[in-house]
């Protein structure tokens, strides 16, 4: 079992930055790729960013590329999402997810552990 707890969300203005954290616990955290997904009101959950277990490979949604950075500290069992130049369309609940595999992937079906989410609201 893997437990994931997100933190760092909040209300910010357009152009501001936020850093989300995802703390993982459980003896099976090792060897898993990690990702961030988000879900805006009335919309489907969508992929944001992924990082491989070894952190040597990352993927980003086109909508966040160049603004968001995913990273991880395996010694601390923590994954981060640095979000810069935030836009109102980034407003959503952000979820951390742990994959069944060590390679970074955008496919939601490969993620079998999810956090409860943290709200990010960007005002214009």
Detailed description of the structure:
This protein is an all-beta fold and 124 residues long. The chain has strands at residues 3-7, 10-13, 18-25, 34-39, 46-51, 58-60, 68-73, 78-83, 92-99, 111-114, 118-123. The strands form two sheets. Strands 2, 4, 5, 6, 9, 10 and 11 form a seven-stranded mixed beta sheet that branches. A four-stranded antiparallel beta sheet has the order 1-3-8-7, with no helix packed on it. Strand 5 and strand 6 form a beta hairpin. The relative contact order is 0.32. The mean pLDDT is 95.
Structure described in brief:
This protein has 124 residues and is mainly beta. It has no helices and eleven strands.
| pLDDT averaged residue by residue | 95
* Percentage of β-strand residues: over 45%
Low-confidence parts lasting 5 or more residues at pLDDT below 50?
A: none
* Order of secondary-structure elements: EEEEEEEEEEE
Taking the sheet with the most strands, its summary is: 7 strands, mixed
Write down how many β-strands occur, each being a DSSP E stretch of 2 or more residues: 11
Classification by helices and strands: mainly beta
Number of helices: 0
What spatial form do the alpha-carbon principal axes imply? globular
Distance between the ends: 40 Å
Query: Helical residue percent?
Result: under 10%
C-alpha Rg, in Å?
A: 13 Å
């Amino acid at each position: 079992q893997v437990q994931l707890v997100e933190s760092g969300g909040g209300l910010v203005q357009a152009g501001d930055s936020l850093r989300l954290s995802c703390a993982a616990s459980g003896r099976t955290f090792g060897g898993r790729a990690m990702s961030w997904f988000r879900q805006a009101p009335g919309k489907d959950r969508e992929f944001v960013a992924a990082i491989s277990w070894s952190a040597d490979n990352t993927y980003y949604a086109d909508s966040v590329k160049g603004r968001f950075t995913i990273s991880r500290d395996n010694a601390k069992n923590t994954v981060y999402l640095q979000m810069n130049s935030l836009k109102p369309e980034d407003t959503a609940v952000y979820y951390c997810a742990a994959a069944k595999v060590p390679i970074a992937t955008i496919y939601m079906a490969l993620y079998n552990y999810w956090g409860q989410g943290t709200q990010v609201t960007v005002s214009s």
